[in-house]
Design brief:
Belongs to the concentrative nucleoside transporter (CNT) (TC 2.A.41) family. It is a multi-pass membrane protein. The protein is mainly α. It folds into three domains: 10-78, no CATH class; 99-172; 177-464 and 573-634, no CATH class. It has helices at residues 48-61, 69-75, 85-89, 94-127, 135-150, 156-176, 182-199, 209-228, 238-257, 259-286, 289-292, 297-318, 320-336, 340-352, 354-359, 370-382, 386-393, 399-420, 446-487, 499-506, 508-514, 528-540, 543-550, 564-574, 580-593, 598-626. Helix 14 (340-352) runs antiparallel to helix 18 and helix 25 packs across helix 26. The longest helix is centred in the last third of the chain and has 42 residues, at 446-487. It is globular, with a radius of gyration of 31 Å.
Length: 638
């Protein structure tokens, strides 16, 4: 039977259309009459069985138009001998091959992993029980073991037991306290814990109880200033404030006062320093070993940032970053009573940076309350990212102090932001912690993710370089004008009229309240003015310039010869993105994520900057409170 040649697209022929039975979409349609069409111009009512048989006849009798070879390639038509088009375009991936084997052999695979990790842990104890600490290997083994166990045993059994103990202990005590006295009781417990932890320990030459008392006074003054300038004092959630400040203090006490805490953070910091070494290998290949060994910003900090961002993208692709952040954010969410989006950003900021952390909750940014926008910006200003942390370790700064400062500033930023700008609206992510999928930037495989990370690292590094260049040049321009003005009133040399000098004197009381050494050398004010000028340098330009001045080896520098206590407090006080340059970065990123909220972001940015700087300063106060005889371990990198 001959078939008429059609001029229309063969895909429009009724016989070529996909056929499937439509299920009813709701119970209401269960008894409705359904109209089926055979492709003819006139519509008809045909039972489903006859409709299917008529289409089968058309498939058997209809011959599609002849294609040229080129058209066959365009339309996806292949010869039977060559196999189907779907088989050629969708080969079986390695995941599809390994997946069934893993599912059937998962208990044996997990048992093998457990045996290997246990053997490694036992061997490490036997071989290095004298020359290496046992805490970190034990924690690694414990983490692997617990992860394997919870693959087979639901975690609710453990979480329900913890909840039961919590409800039968702390919750019962909490319920016994009248509601109007609960905030006062919580504050009393927090203050008592801080007093006991700060003043019962022994004194050292540079860390007397008098100096600790000054640091404690500084924390109290910072909290009072935030309360006095709060947007709505009646709306302050004191649970978040008390819990955040107490958590910050406990972390500082754990790191600076206990050997276990020091060992854990020393291990984390050492691994961050290793990343710097890996980046140097790449620089040495592109240039030479001598160039890679320099402390030049372009060759030491920038490559480490690019490599770290690439590594983060790979970890994000395999799901580790999301898993880690969601666990950390859950603790922040339940412990401090903030929204889910705030918890995710707070947990992610010290690891992936101020802009990238906001991108984790990109779908929620246009719908965030003003308090949430204020919070996520405060988190960005209060700490530094993991990539810059790696770079700053290369300057010779103490690794443990930098890492612990990043973690301590997380709860502090939450507490301070909720005092400065309390929540008065209904949040979209209240009661849940979630990281939405980012399908727009999803990589196809780990290599693709690494390449995307390298390109993202180049863009971020370029942003950092251009921001530094422009901001430093602009500040130098302003300082040139001020110096010219000051020359007519004999302000020269160390007292050149500059922004740093002006803000340094304005921050003199802040530096005093941090508890830096008041007697050091021949300077009548001790280290107070130099530390104040370092903080001013950090706010006006950036923390890199301030850290460079802090680690100077030039005896003529006013920052040379700071006491160990002052070095430690200054390291904590400078460890944050709270500067004018980051102000523009935060406004630009959030305005791109939510163009409709650009006005709100700009109005809240300065308040968030001040809050972020204060959060970093409270971490410095805590460091001054808890550090004792091991002070020399936290000054310069060993």
């Amino acid at each position: 039977m001959s078939v008429q040649q059609h001029t229309t697209d063969p895909a429009l022929e009724p016989a070529h259309q996909h056929v499937h039975q439509h299920n009813h979409h709701s119970p209401r349609a269960a008894h409705d009459d359904v109209t089926y069409t055979t492709g003819n111009p006139e519509s008809s009512i045909v039972p489903p069985q006859q409709h299917r048989s008529s289409l089968d006849e058309k498939r058997a009798t209809h011959t599609p138009p002849d294609y040229s070879d080129h058209e066959k390639n365009e339309a996806g038509v292949v010869d039977a001998s060559a196999g189907t088009n779907s088989e050629r375009s969708t080969p079986i991936g390695w995941r599809a091959k390994i997946g069934p084997v893993y599912r059937h052999r998962r208990p044996l695979i997990h048992l093998a992993v457990f045996c290997i990790s246990t053997a490694w842990w036992v061997a490490s104890l036997v071989l290095h029980h004298d020359d290496k600490n046992w805490v970190v290997p034990f924690l690694v083994w414990l983490a692997i073991t617990l992860r394997l166990v919870f693959w087979h045993v639901p975690s609710r059994y453990v979480s329900n037991a913890i909840k039961a103990v919590w409800k039968n202990s702390a919750v019962k005590v909490y319920d016994m306290i009248p509601s109007k006295f609960r905030t006062l009781a919580g504050a009393t417990v927090a203050v008592a814990a801080i007093l006991v932890g700060s003043f019962v320990s022994e004194e050292s030459a540079d860390n007397t109880r008098e100096n600790r008392a000054v640091s404690l006074l500084g924390m109290a003054v910072f909290i009072f200033i935030l309360w006095a300038t709060s947007r709505d004092r009646k709306a302050i959630n004191w649970r978040t404030v008390i819990g955040g400040m107490l958590t910050q203090y406990v972390i500082g006490l754990f790191v600076l006062r206990t050997g276990v805490g020091y060992d854990i953070f020393s291990f984390i910091a050492a691994r961050a320093a290793d990343l710097l070494g890996f980046a140097r290998d790449g620089v040495a290949f592109l240039t030479n070993p001598e160039t890679a060994a320099t402390t030049n910003f372009f060759f030491s900090v920038i490559p480490a940032i690019i490599f770290f961002i690439s590594l983060v993208q790979v970890l994000y692709f395999i799901g580790f970053i999301q898993w880690f952040i969601i666990k950390f954010a859950t603790f922040v969410f339940w412990g401090l009573g903030v929204s889910g989006a705030e918890a995710v950003v707070a947990a992610a900021t010290p690891f992936i940076g101020q802009g990238e952390s906001a991108m984790l909750v990109r779908p929620f940014v246009p719908h965030m309350t003003k308090a949430e926008l204020h919070q996520i910006m405060t988190c960005g200003f209060a700490t530094i990212s993991g990539s810059t942390l790696v770079g700053y370790i290369g300057l010779g700064l103490n690794r443990e102090a930098l890492v612990s400062s990043c973690i301590m500033s997380i709860p502090a930023s939450l507490a301070i932001s909720k005092m400065r700008y309390p929540e008065t609206e209904e949040t979209l992510t209240a009661g849940r912690v979630v990281i939405p999928d980012d399908d727009e930037h999803k990589a196809e495989n780990a290599l693709h993710a690494f390449a995307n990370g390298a390109w993202l690292g180049i863009k971020i590094a370029g942003t950092i370089i251009t921001s530094l260049l422009c901001i430093i040049a602009f500040v130098a321009f302003i300082n040139g004008i001020l110096t010219w003005i000051g020359s007519y009133i004999n302000l020269r040399g160390d007292y050149d009229l500059t922004l740093q000098l002006i803000l340094g004197y304005l921050l003199f009381p802040i530096s005093f309240l941090l508890g830096v050494s008041r007697t050091n050398g021949t300077n009548p004010t001790g280290d107070i003015l130099p530390v104040a000028r370092l903080i001013a340098q950090k706010i006006i330009t950036n923390e890199y310039n301030a850290f460079t001045d802090l680690t100077t080896d030039n005896p003529a520098s006013p920052y040379y010869g700071l006491s160990p206590r002052s070095q430690l407090i200054a390291t904590y006080a400078l460890c944050g993105f709270g500067n004018i340059g980051s102000l523009g970065i935060q406004i630009g990123i959030l305005s791109q994520l939510a163009p409709s909220r650009g006005g709100d972001v700009a109005r809240l940015a300065v308040s968030a900057l001040i809050s972020g700087v204060l959060a970093t300063l409270t971490s410095a106060s805590v460091a001054g409170l808890v550090v004792t005889t091991q002070l020399s371990d936290f000054t310069r990198s060993q």
